[in-house]
Amino acid sequence: MARERKVPVAETAESMAQKQREISVSEFFLKNRHLLGFDSPRKALLTAVKEAVDNSLDACEEAGILPEIGVDITQLAEDRFKVSVTDNGPGIVKAQIPRIFAKLLYGSKFHRLRMSRGQQGIGISAAGMYGQLTTGASTRILSKVKGSKMAHHMEVQIDTRANKPAILTEEETDWLPVFLPVNEEGKPGRPIEYKHGTGVEIVMEAAYVRGKLSVDEYIKQCAIVNPHLQLHYRLALKGKAEGGKGKGEGAEAESTSAASAVTYARAVNRLPEPPTEIKPHPHGVELGLLMQMLKGTAARTLRSALTTDFSRVGDRSALEICERAGLNPKANPTRIAHQESEALYKAIQETKLMRPPTDCLSPIGEAQILAGLKKEIAADFYTAVTREPEVYRGNPFQVEVGLAYAKPGENQELGAEEPVRVLRFANRVPLLYQGGACGMTEAVTDVNWKTYGLAQPKGGLPVGPMVILLHMASVWVPFTSESKEAIAHYPEILKEFTYALQECGRQLSVYLSRRRRQAEVERKRSYIEMYIPHLALGLKEILEFDERKEKQVIQKLGKMLEKTHLDV
Amino acid sequence: MARERKVPVAETAESMAQKQREISVSEFFLKNRHLLGFDSPRKALLTAVKEAVDNSLDACEEAGILPEIGVDITQLAEDRFKVSVTDNGPGIVKAQIPRIFAKLLYGSKFHRLRMSRGQQGIGISAAGMYGQLTTGASTRILSKVKGSKMAHHMEVQIDTRANKPAILTEEETDWLPVFLPVNEEGKPGRPIEYKHGTGVEIVMEAAYVRGKLSVDEYIKQCAIVNPHLQLHYRLALKGKAEGGKGKGEGAEAESTSAASAVTYARAVNRLPEPPTEIKPHPHGVELGLLMQMLKGTAARTLRSALTTDFSRVGDRSALEICERAGLNPKANPTRIAHQESEALYKAIQETKLMRPPTDCLSPIGEAQILAGLKKEIAADFYTAVTREPEVYRGNPFQVEVGLAYAKPGENQELGAEEPVRVLRFANRVPLLYQGGACGMTEAVTDVNWKTYGLAQPKGGLPVGPMVILLHMASVWVPFTSESKEAIAHYPEILKEFTYALQECGRQLSVYLSRRRRQAEVERKRSYIEMYIPHLALGLKEILEFDERKEKQVIQKLGKMLEKTHLDV
Description:
The structure is a homodimer of 568-residue chains.
Chain A (H helix, E strand, L loop, with lengths): L12 H7 L1 E2 L2 H7 L9 H22 L5 E10 L2 E8 L9 H5 L4 E2 L15 H13 L3 E6 L6 E9 L4 E10 L23 E9 L9 H11 L4 E9 L12 H4 L1 E9 L22 H9 L6 H8 L5 H11 L7 H7 L1 H10 L15 H11 L4 E6 L3 E3 L2 E11 L15 E6 L2 E3 L7 H8 L19 E9 L16 H53 L3 H20 L2
């Protein structure tokens, strides 16, 4: 098969210049689709569902609506699935639909400092782009804005060379609840009638596999950390036998044979505290960014630029910073940007300021974590810790850790000789893949669990029938890739997780010692119960006791021995 | 510090639409700079050097020039460094300089299928953007195009809101070799006079730390896999004492006290085989991409679109595909794109085609790997394997593995009880960070090294005084993030590495058994040598031998025992 290698002509600066070209961000991610979580058919299915559900949850919460979401997965052919996610959110105005669903790097969450699930403006468009790449199909959107009569139906594709949406269909239509949950017998049930909301439907190459990395697991974990969510999940797999008509959509649905549906019921009828948007904290702003902010400020004096564009800079702090930098508080900030920014930057670092406000965060809270764990994981001991907010690179963040320990053998899913299960969450989103690359996993392995009574191989996870839940809430979660599966190893973040884990570990240690003592007591009691009757029988024969006397002796001996041995 | 939480006003579809905005790719990566390898000052220094050197090497090789590169790192303040990299490449035409150095996603390597170090069009602009962010400084470029008299000097910054270059300085100037190597005494040496080339200088927040993750290590490994490279590396660290004037650049260089310089000499005076550009192979093209290619083709018939836009489709294969799909070979490809592309896609999958051409790859080669390992790593046994090219997602790739085993205790850097050292390379670029997340590391841990005579803890790296070198060459390396530090876990790639590792393992196993037998022989011989004299002395006393007789007996006994025991 070897052929003569054609030697390419040597390039010159001029010939190379001819080949230089702009790369659109869509082309970039199309070629690098593993960066977005679309590297295998199995993961693709999960990623698509995750991106759509995250968006729905964000939209509902921002609009102050208790979220009710339908997730509907239908297998159309061996390696082809239709994913449809519908919510009761505020809807999306028509003009924004194409860009939200068919343009990478477009959204409302990137430019603000406030906790939300989405942050990049990539996810749902990437899912649509993957569907388009693998099946040629368009992304279908149906959205009805709260207050309007009609809904909009659109079919869009992404023009990857330009990273721009192409609209294929666009019509006003009645609002149809796209999601029809099935009832227990697998028949279509009562349609859920949302008054408004958004539904998105993507056809893609995918694979459905059960287990710890499945959509099922994602949805289950999602329910744990979002107790205010009502979620209907329907899965229709294609069997070999011809089944009955499923949703009456024609040929493709006709051979659907295995359908299952489950509703994760809302546990709390209250939305989480809505996080507020904050301004950047001066201590987290790098020199270059400071210069850019001063250049672009609407303020007319340095003093007012400092107080209005940043958080935690009051009038007094602003004056202090100016004095320290040797700058006139009334100076034009644009001029500072070019000349004296370095002095200003140093002065800011040296000035004591209050920590950033933390109402931009909405942690789950210890009570909710305990409730979530108790609901989903059968165990004997539960504990949870929510740390105080901290800051990395100027971004406020807060970590939480929950822990559930089952009596060995009592929870089939938690082996006593297995590594503990680690559930990772970022801004209330379950992270299933890339555990090994995640800072949270590292924090768990770095804690010395032997101190708390668990076995732990060197450098590994502790061993035992236990689940550890970790949550990072932040205005900007530093993910290790655009697929948002693992968080980066910032030392500030790891330290907080370590403290939280250690606190939970100490609680666990108290529980485990008590349990060990109890077990010891049980063991001794069982010895006593086993031997005393024999002892009494012996005494009876030697001392010629009657039955009554024998029973008395047994009782007395038992009490005496218990008192002696069990006073622990 | 707690304050009343201001409850944000609930959003509506309309108010949310107001906040939707485009996100520039520069803004995105500025906020996510850990994705580009700029998450810590230490790593930032390495990443900047790496991106610049990769570009220089690519440019030289494409122009058919034996590369000579100067890397000059000067510490300006505790956490501030100047990185300057100069090459003897073909230079860059003036108009392209700003976009190459101050615009993300711009370049010549993304849109072609051919092996090169750079592929994304991000790296060097990202380094400049990081410098700008942390110090406010511009990227300085000096470039002289081969054949022109004058050089261009430019200072550029990146306008991150628009991802566009801003030119601050632009002038014609004499070509000055930016790089002045120091001689052994730490004094500036003879300037290297490149006739043409490009120099880039970036000032950034950084930290220099020696060790396995340092610039030193990167450069050393770079020399191993690029024996045709001549590289001068100069490092000037700022000491506390006031040193002599270094390069006469004024105050900032005055306290430079510790300077070191090293030249990695060229070992081979021949460039590697230049890889050629290929067309996509039809079996690696997804349905959506096929549709896009047909839509955009310059060909006027389906048949000619198939033969000209794809590799390995001859006239006969094209006709076979058309027939199988039930399509007219003379049909308009644009029409096919919309209607019958799925049939065409299936027909392509079912048609047998030659594997993609592989002259797009330029592996290092077994001989060069052995030479590189022998030059840099003192060991007793070396072996190397270059596998035949394979294909993942339509992209040709080729893997290579080298192995060096030192006698325990003979190489201080390789502990006999330590996990083996793994050196990872992608398209001849050393990968230092994120070893744990890399498919190559996984391939090493997945091999059962006990079979080949090495200890190996469960799920871990084998243990022993050994270095394993792994190289993946491909037209598109699937990195796990834009910082290009680890490769994704594509099964096709892992399988190839496994085979190569096993082949090396078998060679190692032969060597280790031989060495064990030799050791056994040595041990026995030393026993014999130890005991025979005593035995002879005993015999001498019993049988009253004289000295001569005693010596004879010793000799005879020795020969006899050796013959009996050492016939292995």
